């Protein structure tokens, strides 16, 4: 069976790769296509691709894919534009993100009254982060204003790392409500560790690696065939060292990418182009497994309340806080709504949902089903609207 699964995975990846230019111009994006294929061929479909991986295996694949995507996207970001418009992502992260979580809690209390308030808060926090990989069509399209692309890229690169201490502070309280009295201390400590250590590790490893790569290229030590793995290995080192140290690997990967991009070395682009393909491949494999193993496993919990919550999570719960925090900024209403709409949910939320499933909370299955529904809708809706909304944004 393992060889059969490998055949399916790499046959699908091969076929997508040889048609990638044409497919990337279609409204149906790669994540959606791989989800559909995974579901049709997977455990609840034809059973050609029977995924019986542990939750830890799926989580690890998603984490590595996200780390590589965060690193490469950050390294390719235009830092001059980002520095000029730093107020936009700062507002979205420091005000918009907490507001989104609060709106998500209020919506959950109204639509999912069977869930305890702590579990509603976990659901709101795990669905708050946006996905850099799923929003790639937007953040890489030069027809989208650079300040909007930089804002969305920076937001998606950092918000998942910020949500890590929130989710992991709430999980033990959901299991033992008596710990509620320690919430402030736990959250503050985790937030400081996750962000502080993540930033330090990202800066330190990327700076050191930059010097080593610089020496390698000047002395012609590196062969051409190994260029494609250099940045991948660097991104995963940033992620794994930060995780070992108790920090956020996602923040370390993003900050490491920013530092690597800031170095402005002549070899930067050729290394990043190779790494980006590997990151995209891992991401699409994650979506294939997501469609095959996870979607069907939580469909039995599906209700209209879960569907309603998912729709609101992608619309009002996300768009209204963004619109409110961008008041006073020199952006048109169309641009503010564009930023609000393109908050796709993806790999980070998958990782959090798997962690919640592993925690075996009373409402774990409901939380996971809601997360899967929201992520699935996001893949569909953000995928099919990306190109048309970009064209609409260009029209004055």
From TrEMBL:
The keyword Transmembrane helix applies. Pfam families: Na_H_Exchanger. It comes from the Bacteria. Residues 11-389 form the Cation/H+ exchanger transmembrane domain. Keywords: Antiport, Ion transport, Membrane, Transmembrane, Transmembrane helix, Transport. It is found in: Cell membrane. One of its GO terms (biological process) is proton transmembrane transport. One of its GO terms (molecular function) is antiporter activity. This is Sodium/proton antiporter, CPA1 family. The lineage of its organism: Bacteria, Pseudomonadati, Pseudomonadota, Alphaproteobacteria, Hyphomicrobiales.
């Amino acid at each position: 069976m393992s060889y059969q699964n490998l055949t399916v995975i790499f046959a699908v990846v091969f076929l997508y790769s040889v048609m990638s230019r044409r497919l990337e111009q279609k409204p149906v994006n790669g994540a959606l296509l791989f989800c559909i294929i995974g579901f049709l061929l997977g455990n609840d479909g034809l059973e050609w691709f029977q995924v019986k991986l542990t939750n830890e295996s799926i989580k690890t694949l998603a984490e590595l894919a996200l780390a590589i995507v965060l690193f490469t996207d950050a390294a390719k970001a235009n830092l001059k534009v980002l520095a000029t418009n730093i107020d936009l992502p700062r507002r979205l992260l420091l005000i918009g993100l907490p507001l989104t979580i609060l709106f998500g809690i209020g919506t959950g209390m109204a639509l999912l009254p069977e869930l305890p308030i702590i579990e509603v808060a976990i659901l709101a926090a795990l669905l708050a982060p946006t996905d850099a990989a799923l929003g790639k069509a937007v953040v890489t399209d030069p027809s989208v204003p650079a300040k909007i692309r930089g804002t969305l890229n920076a937001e998606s690169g950092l918000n998942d790392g910020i949500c890590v201490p929130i989710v992991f502070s709430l999980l033990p309280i959901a299991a033992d409500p008596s710990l509620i009295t320690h919430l402030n201390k736990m959250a503050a400590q985790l937030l400081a560790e996750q962000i502080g250590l993540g930033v330090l590790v990202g800066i330190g490893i990327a700076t050191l690696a930059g010097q080593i790569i610089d020496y390698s290229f000047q002395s012609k030590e590196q062969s051409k065939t190994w260029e494609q793995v250099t940045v991948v290995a660097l991104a995963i080192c940033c992620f794994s060292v930060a995780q070992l140290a108790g920090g956020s690997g996602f923040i370390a990967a993003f900050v490491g990418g920013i530092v690597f991009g800031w170095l402005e070395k002549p070899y930067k682009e050729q290394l990043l182009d190779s790494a980006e393909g590997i990151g995209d491949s891992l991401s699409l494999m994650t979506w294939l497994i997501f469609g095959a193993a996870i979607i069907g496993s939580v469909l039995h919990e599906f209700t209209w309340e879960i569907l309603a919550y998912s729709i609101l999570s992608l619309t009002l719960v996300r768009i209204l806080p963004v619109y409110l925090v961008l008041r006073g900024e020199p952006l048109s209403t169309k641009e503010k709504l564009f930023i609000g709409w393109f908050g796709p949910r993806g790999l980070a939320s998958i990782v959090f949902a798997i962690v919640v499933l592993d925690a075996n909370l009373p409402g774990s299955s409901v939380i996971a089903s809601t997360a899967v529904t929201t992520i699935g809708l996001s893949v569909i809706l953000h995928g099919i609207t990306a190109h048309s909304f970009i064209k609409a944004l260009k029209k004055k």
